[in-house]
Amino acid sequence: MISWEQKLILGVPEMDKEHKELVEKSNDMLLALKSGNSTDEVVRHLKFLAEYVIKHFNSEEKLQMRVGYPDMAAHKMVHAEFKDTVTHLIDDINKNLLTTSKKFKSVK
Question: Which of 33, 50, 56, 100 would bridge 86 by S-S if both were Cys, CB 3.0 to 4.6 A apart?
């Protein structure tokens, strides 16, 4: 599980709130995985987390632009790579679910 720690606080209320929410939602997903919840439940958590991360990244990038964050281009690239990774992960999970579903239907 991920712990909310003082070092994660930026002092920007909007970002701190979103970071705390990311930690909570990440823990929800990890708990679903550890608890042996259904794949659908884990995928639901993952999709919510992915959507929330994209929303957060957009907010963070707007804030960085407003304050003239000096390393914004590099930070934006990290965001883009993470978005791609999450998108591919969700696609892979959906493809595997579809393949598994087809296999079960063919057995009937």
Answer: 50
User: Which residue do the tokens 């079960």 mark?
Assistant: 104
Q: Give the other-Cβ count within 10 Å of 62's Cβ.
A: 11
pLDDT digits over 27-71, tens only?
Answer: 988 888 888 877 788 888 888 888 898 899 999 999 999 999 999
Question: What is the token pair recorded at 44?
Answer: 């639901």
Range of the domain at 95: 13-107
Sorted by sequence, the CB contacts under 8 Å of residue 3 that are 6+ apart come out as: 23
Find the CATH number of the domain harbouring 86.
Answer: 1.20.120.50
Query: Can you tell me the distance from the alpha carbon of 3 to that of 27, in angstroms, rounded to the nearest whole number?
Result: 9
